[in-house]
Write a structure and sequence with these properties.
single chain; about 100 residues; alpha+beta; Alpha-Beta Plaits; four-stranded antiparallel beta sheet; 4 strands; about 30% strand; globular
Length: about 100
């Protein structure tokens, strides 16, 4: 089975960090880990060097990365994975990575 990292960079809307972090920790991270083949996730806050304040790294184990990406897209913004209005959507970046 192939192993990947799903890396997400994001920011909260100005003044909404508490709301954003509560949503991410209590709802969003568990929603992503509930997707088949996403086995764990961990969050980070930036201390220097990027325009993104937050990063999350998820461990993905699958032989069907396209299927995982499709399921993530299918769930985003639904009751299975609501998106907080505290997220600065314009700053959000998401990518799947594979070790060389």
């Amino acid at each position: 089975m192939a192993r990947y990292k799903l890396v997400a960079f994001s920011n909260a809307i100005e003044g909404r960090d508490d709301d954003y972090n509560r949503w991410y920790d209590q709802r969003h991270l568990p929603d992503l880990v509930a997707i088949p083949d996403i086995v764990s996730g961990e969050r980070f806050v930036c201390v220097s060097g990027t325009e993104h304040r937050y990063m999350a790294i998820y461990e993905v184990e699958t032989d069907d990365i396209e299927g995982v990406m499709a399921e993530l897209s299918r769930r985003a913004g639904t009751d299975l994975m609501p998106i907080s209005d505290a997220l600065d959507h314009g700053s959000a970046r998401l990518a799947f990575w594979k070790a060389l």
